[in-house]
Amino acid sequence: MKVNGKNYTSIWIEDNNKVFIIDQRWLPHEFKIVELKNLNDFCSAIKDMWVRGAPLIGVTAAFGFAKSMETDNSDDALINIKSKLLSTRPTAVNLQWAVKIMHDLLLNVNKDDRVDEAFKKAKTILEEDISANYRIGKNGYEIIKNIINKKNANSLNILTHCNAGWLATVDWGTATSPIYYAKEKGENIHVFVDETRPRNQGAQLTTWELLHNDISHNLIVDNAGGHLMQHNEIDLVIVGSDRTSANGDVCNKIGTYLKALSAYDNDIPFYVALPSSTIDWNINDGIKDIPIEERDANEVNFVQGKDKDSNIINVDIAPEGTKSRNPAFDVTPSRLVSGLITEHGVFEANLKSMEKLEKITKGQI
Ligand code: MRU
After folding, report:
1. What is the pLDDT at residue 86?
2. pTM of the complete model
């Protein structure tokens, strides 16, 4: 998508297998590009959220695997790289998905061919992410169009939470992809962006994306969604997911569950956009079994922003020494989800419908 009129992806590769990312820690105030050169860089980039968002975490891990092969292509290295990458963040299943693909592939490849094969596979994972998200946009657009037609309206108001935009994927985003697609089709879309405390991915990243891609939007505080829904100001909610269980429970950024409850109470469609790489087919009860990342309490006690001299600073917003809790994700039960927008189509969030999706994903039908 566009930044100052120029097309970017969130991660890309240049000559001699050099891997570059947009360092998201400084957005929207500074646009910084960083080269990731070794396994430590890749692990820090994921753990400390230079990159974030489930699909992008997976793609970054795949390139981390490939880059690490350049310094050590041994079997021992495969085990070490796998365990280091897996220890970075626990919730987004795309990390485990990508690491398993890379590890299992390379285990069966001659050592001398491992670098080439690893980069080939990582590039395929990157390209497939772009293609899946584009198709999510196309499939989600059908939902947007139907609601516009049903309401006989000439515009649509969509609420989104966190950043499930192109910055969270390689390109297009998941929740934002139907929005970008609809915009290309000439639809009049307005987006309400939850700020998404504590790290403010909505305020800092989603607004920045929408601004640069000319999508009408308002930033709102996390607690405003229910009020706007009660007053018919929201027609549709679309969020992303970090891990969705086989029965359709959706894990996403903390606060998503409350939005789903409000949407349900106000009879507003609540859709989740996700590539099939975000589904954990081994889990049947999302609330019980999806591991929820508990992040540093300082993320709650401090807020990052820009001061009047344009320095990026953290300011303390609670009495010094306040003990905070910082669960980073929550799980929305499938019964509150109107549907899952995937690259293979829109599916109901229940076991039966998802069984079909699983077969499609695994190439069985
Ligand atoms: O902690 P983050 O910023 O990695 O969390 C991101 C989200 O919760 C996104 O909504 C999710 O990964 C879907 S991204 C397409």
Report:
1. 98
2. 0.98
